[in-house]
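Exercise 3.2. Students should predict the tertiary structure of the chain below and write it as structure tokens, then compare their answer with the key that follows.

Predict this chain's 3D structure.
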Amino acid sequence: MTATTLTTGAAPRQIRGGVVGMLRDSWVVAKRNLRRMTRIPEIVVFGLMQPVMFVLLFTYVMGGAIAVPGGDSNAYKQYLMAGIFAQTVTFAVAGASAGIAEDMTKGLVDRFRSLPMARSSVLVGRTIADLVQTAFTVLVLAIVAFIVGWRFNNGFLKALGAFALLLLLGYAFSWIGALIGLSVRSPEAATSAGLIWLFPLTFVSNAFVPVSSMPGWLQAVAYWNPFSATVQACRELFGNPTGAPTNSWPMEHAVWVSIGWSLLIMAVFSYLSVRKYRSATA
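Answer key:
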């Protein structure tokens, strides 16, 4: 493995080159963030409260007022859960952006910079830790969903595939959170910036109501929404109701469209985040 010497103004430091070194450094950063979550359990607890409340409110308060085409009185409960799962993994963006902004303001990033580690590993490690927390949140949420009556009907392996799609989307969106956290000046601003754009993204979709109930021009936006593709793919894999049939291409190939959107978002925003991080710590 090669090493590159960089001068930071004080003393040269050796940075381990290669993918293996970057992954090792990323895992060190990830473990640091995971330990922080265990020491501050409020982060996890309050992260769980919102999705659980959404499940209970939509199921017991609004569920009776929303009809799913071709479904019975229990259909909305089954229809809803894929949308709640997807909303949960994407709303983790706010925590990711606030965490990175906090590290920047407290000077932790400067301390990382003085260490012999790849710069990209700071962001990779952070996003991996966020992915682990998101996976735990989805697990708890799935248990709550089972308690209120949600079921998957296409077998265990396809259900695992659906959860994998959800985590892939969540990991891709965590890179958006990383870019936001690097671009604002305070954790409070990062939290607001990380949430405000998610509301139209999640509600102009098929997550909570069938797209057929929307105006015609808005239906096209909803069908091509990357959030809608993942929700539709999860419903198909779970064997849950998907709403009214549609000839929309993204909905007819939802699994592949979901994977494609997630990989595209990850590629674009990981590149932008690493570039922003390098300029911010130059």
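Discussion points: Residues 1-15 have pLDDT under 50 and may be disordered. The longest helix spans residues 75-105.
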